[in-house]
Amino acid sequence: MKRILVGIKRVVDFNVRIRVRPDGSGVVTDGVKMSVNPFDEIALEEALRIKERGGAEEVIVATVGPADTQQQLRSALAMGADRALHVQADGVIEPLVAARALLKLIEREQPFLVILGKQAIDDDNGQTGQVLAALWNRPQATYASRLEIVGDTTARVTREVDAGLETLEIDLPAVITTDLRLNEPRYVKLPDIMKAKKKPLETSSLAALGVEPRQQLKLVRFEPPPQRQKGIRVKDAAELVEQLKKKGIL
Amino acid sequence: MNPKILIVAEHDGTRLNVSTARCVSCARALAGAEITIAVCATDPGAVAAQAAQLEGVARVLAVANPANAHALAAVLAPQIVALAGPFTHVLGPSTTYGKDLMARVAGLLGAPQVSDIMGLESPVRFRRPIYAGNAILTVEAEAGAKVVGTVRMASFEAVGAGGPAPIEKVAVSVEIPAHTRFISVSAAKSDRPDLQTAARVVSGGRALGSAEGFKILYSLADKLGAAVGASRAAVDAGYAPNEMQVGQTGKIIAPELYLAVGISGAIQHLTGIKDARTIVAINKDGEAPIFEVADFGLIGDLFQVIPELEKLVSS
Lengths: 250, 315
Ligand SMILES: Cc1cc2nc3c(=O)[nH]c(=O)nc-3n(C[C@H](O)[C@H](O)[C@H](O)COP(=O)(O)OP(=O)(O)OC[C@H]3O[C@@H](n4cnc5c(N)ncnc54)[C@H](O)[C@@H]3O)c2cc1C
Ligand SMILES: Nc1ncnc2c1ncn2[C@@H]1O[C@H](COP(=O)(O)O)[C@@H](O)[C@H]1O
Known about the structure:
The structure holds two protein chains of two kinds.
Chain A: E1 3-7, E2 10-12, E3 34-36, H1 38-52, E4 58-65, H2 70-79, E5 83-88, H3 95-109, E6 113-117, H4 128-136, E7 140-150, E8 154-161, E9 164-171, E10 174-178, H5 190-196, E11 201-205, H6 206-209, E12 217-223, E13 232-234, H7 237-246
Parallel strand pairs in A: 1-4, 1-6, 4-5, 5-11, 6-10, 7-10
Antiparallel strand pairs in A: 2-3, 7-8, 8-9
Helix pairs in contact in A: 2-5, 3-4
Chain B: E1 4-8, H1 18-28, E2 34-41, H2 45-52, E3 57-64, H3 73-84, E4 89-93, H4 96-109, E5 113-117, E6 119-122, E7 125-130, E8 135-141, E9 147-151, E10 167-169, E11 180-186, E12 200-204, H5 211-224, E13 227-230, H6 232-236, E14 257-261, H7 267-270, E15 278-283, E16 296-299, H8 302-314
Parallel strand pairs in B: 1-2, 1-4, 2-3, 3-10, 4-9, 5-9, 12-13, 12-14, 14-15, 15-16
Antiparallel strand pairs in B: 6-7, 7-8
Helix pairs in contact in B: 3-4, 5-8
The complex binds flavin-adenine dinucleotide (FAD) and adenosine monophosphate.
């Protein structure tokens, strides 16, 4: 069966104003809205579109995380994924651990394409896709803004890079990571949420997969960023230029 | 043990990118650091010579391979890994090149990666932004562990000239994969300063309304000698190309002067300009969040203000 595997991470919703706990032990997450990482929604949307065009038969979503992450898997099923895999894991899950767990799932499911987000908007690591591609010894095409499957064995990917747009040709299977402009994810309709409750969601654990939950970077301290001083209002362009000149900027 | 740091050079085959000099600056924050730069290219000579001129660099490793004609992470990563053995840290820039490559290196090494290093407190303690810069996290690696890192460009000034350091040609015998092939790159050529290093940046948002509308910003930028940036909304709408996006998922910049024109100031945008020396906001909505971070705020219609401003700075 031609499968696509999509990695999903549960993160604090992008609209939430982040506050650091006063004791510096983390950010406030109690009662805060959690969502599927926006880049992962884009990854899922792309997988669904490929399937809808006849390029794949099954779209699987997978997450490594605590029990709560099943909510995000359900959202992904509601969006249209066929099946969900939950790898139960608590505490900090570093990219290397997430990638090792995803690799175990890949070995079992044999997808021809794996799509992840380019970064998780909580840790802003931007590593997991590349680490996974390295462990799997397969191609990576990060920051994709266009993806075209060519025949059964290759893909053409346009990447958003600092210089502009780069196009790569890669052999499949491969890992793609998504950038914002790859697509616009669809909205979930209410009946789909009901239907999603009946779709298969399988749970395993890091231990069952034989992946060690190793944390190599200790989180020592969280701090709020330095705040900028609120500035002054100017009434028009002339006053702005005058002020900038006074400050020696113009 | 003194830190031994390998920096992976970014270049286009002939010229060293300034991002490498910023990585050197980051590495030099560690007392007693011994800094080596690796240049992987088809013909690394010219780039290696430039790297050897950077202040504080002890040595340059030049790796020649025809497969290095384009910077492909899958091709470069095994070469970097082959060099990495004796080093305590392997650093690259937090540019799309470095972010793509270094995490693949980390994966092959099974080493932890610290992304977007903004400060070092010790050889194993690093500070980095998370949540779009809304929190600063200090992380600590296990003593003696090899650490891979990407260096946040806006946090470090480029080092100046020093050296020259000795250049060693090294041959690495690793299997180079053929599964990833470069096809093309489309980069708009412009005479304007580079967005990532410009001292002045004029950025436009959704309010510009069209690619045509953006022209008033280019015109002002040229008078100021500024680079032009854009918000995600402006890029998504096709008013500006993707390489102009500033923010959490675009470029993180630290110009002397940042002019935000018709940009609301979403957190994802602000994270890209936190280190700007002076921020000017021009927006017709006095409640726009951009005014909370602006040093100078002007409430007004940009289509009226920008031409006026251009006239004033030209005279
Ligand atoms: C995962 C994720 C990542 C993101 N990454 C980025 C990123 O890297 N960079 C980024 O910029 N955004 C990013 N965003 C998007 C961000 O949340 C905002 O949607 C975006 O920055 C808004 O762009 P804008 O300010 O141009 O548009 P708007 O928010 O629509 O603001 C337009 C502003 O123009 C003003 N205006 C309108 N007409 C005029 C006029 N005639 N004169 C003067 N002012 C006028 C309005 O008052 C308004 O404030 C990201 C979002 C997500 C979810
Ligand atoms: N715990 C996880 N479970 C599943 N996918 C993940 C996990 N962590 C990261 N990913 C995927 O990897 C991408 C990049 O994450 P990061 O490297 O943490 O920035 C995310 O957008 C997800 O697609």
